[in-house]
Design a protein that fits this description.
Layout (H helix, E strand, L loop, with lengths): L1 H16 L2 H5 L2 H26 L17 H10 L11 H9 L3 E6 L4 E4 L1 H7 L17 H17 L3 E8 L5 E12 L5 E10 L1 H4 L4 H10 L3 E5 L5 E4 L1 H7 L3 H5 L12 H14 L3 E8 L5 E12 L5 E10 L1 H23 L3 E5 L5 E4 L1 H7 L3 H4 L13 H14 L3 E9 L2 E13 L6 E10 L1 H22 L1 H54 L5 H29 L7 E3 L1 H11 L1 H6 L3 E6 L6 E3 L1 H18 L9 E9 L3 E7 L26 H11 L3 E6 L5 E8 L2 H4 L1
Helix pairs in contact: 1-3, 18-19, 20-22, 22-23
Length: 720
Amino acid sequence: MAALLALAFFGSAVLLFWEPVPNRLNPLLNRAIHIGVAASISVAFYICWLIFRRRDARGSPLDLNDAPSPDIDAARRREGTAPVDTEGVSADEALVFEKIPGMTCVVNRFGILQHLNRRSLDYFGGRDGDLCGAAWMTVVHPDDQAATAQAWHAAVESSAPMASQHRLRKLDGTYGWHHTRMEPEFGVQGHVLRWHGLFTSIEDRLIPKNEPDYQVMLNAIPALIWRADPAGAVDYVNQRCIDYCGLTVQQHADGGWQGLVHPADVQLVERRYLECLRTKELFDMTYRFKRKDGVYRWMHVLAAPLTATDGRIVNWYGIHIDVDEQKAAEDALAESERRLSLIIETIPAMVWRARPDGELDYVSPRCTQNLGMVLEELQQHGWLRPVHPDDVEVTLERWKISETTGRLFEATYRFLIAGTYRWMKATAAPLRDQQTGQILSWYGIHVDIDEQKRAENALRASEQNLRAIMESSKAMEAALRTTQLRLERASQIATVAELSASIAHEINQPLSAVAANSHACARWLAAEPPNLKRARVAAQCIVADANSAAQVVERVRALFKRAAPEKTVLDINDVIQQVLLLMQDEILEKKVSATVELDPAVPHVLADRVQIQQILINLIRNATEAMEKVTDSIKLVTLSSRRQGPDAIEVQICDCGIGIEDVNRVFDPFFTTKDKGMGVGLSICLSIIEAHGGRLWAAANHGPGTTFSFSLPVHAEAVT
């Protein structure tokens, strides 16, 4: 009996601890060992049963012939009278089971658990009776219960041994992978009396045996390592993962890791993760993962499934590798390449690169666009096709020299671009290895110098023409000298004429008034009876106009002497009234109405009375003359005065005439809009106003006519 017990213990030990066998032997030998071990266990159990005999509930031995037949068992099960624990486990049998170095169980012929040895109870937790009956199925992982129950029912129905791999719940609530072997015990009549089971842990086949060293290794790896069950629920993370995420293993198992994925990446990650769970494919993605301080860092995540021999997924094993610096470097490199590409594409030139043998391996988009040829067409000296036929030989010779000597390539030739030959300047320099000096590649550029070349040709032609002109320069210089003398004489004559016209214009106004008043005086004296009163007034006007003419002459002389005007304090409103009185007859003769809008609060100004009167007379006469052709509306001239800010006054003369097309040129000397005008009146007025520190300008009215305005600075005493 001792030998048989040793055989049973040896078989159990082999099944429990001989881990290398499944890894190094072929499947047939592996199967043979399991069958042999299981058979040895069955024989041992059977001999133990023969020694100790089975006893009923009263302790009396039971005969094997008393075992019920399958028909009776089936009838009892249908009637619901089948006993729950018919056979039971004796104390001697229980003692034998406790000696087996493994987790064992006893199940009756109905498939109901009857007994667990102490090792099983220590693993599952609870007392012997807690898992008896059908409750033993609750310790099987929910994902494995269906397959386990199916295998168990098939074994019970066929009375054949059962072998299954599933996860069993430990006392702490975690699950461990086990290989469960159930062998039937038969009576002398061949009926199943009960089942004997052995639970063998296979965790050591999935993870290293030296678990502390394994944990140290996993925690020392500079990455986040994790494990998930077949459904994708995380059930393990290494310490680096806990430190990085700030989440416990349970928080990861509850799906807390999903909240660490960047919001912009979470949908793509979840979709790919579920797809890999379904297809059992490798999960390979790079996305942003949040650190416990809230900072997102780029992670390269890999996860692969570990499958059992039957193809079922045992676990998923994954790793997070921090590639944030690498990603930043890649992004910086991509941005640098983008900017470099943008620079190359925007350079107003054709950029290219060639291998050390001169074969092109890159051309810029501008190059292909201008030439209408792709890179393959430009290779094998295809770039010579757009070169002007007269320039091909020289260009190719220079390129071969540079290619042979490694010197800088420079050439100027014509390139066919968009159907037209244009001058291009080509430059190429070699890139050398810093250590060996060997040429690695050539970098070149074609710059369009067609306009420059044409300008050079035009300049060269101009130089030739200039030489021809300089050859006859002596005769031209003599003619030019004669012409200059004539121009100087003409300029002097023009100056005298301009001065004469200006003096005549200034004197003409008072002399015309003298003539008009003289005729008026003669009419008043010739009347019957003579109107001495009006004749006297006319004579006074003659005297005043003569004095005015004398003053004009005096002012002209002062201008030649560059003498300052004789300024006195003036009331501009009084000056306007005096001018209107002097021009009353002239205004009435032209059938013009004159109105005034004078501001009584206008301050005094410091100005030359005669010159201001001269300006007003000139502007009023221009206004009346501008309305000579008006026949369909009232001829009205309006004089107004107002203050312009704190330091100046403004006077306006507004007419309803035909207007002026270009108000900016009316003050130019000798520019006139009149048929018989000389074009010097307004230019003289502008000179006088500017000499007084004021401004003179003209503006077109919103309706018909033009408004002339001038401003004069306020007298200093009036300002204070």
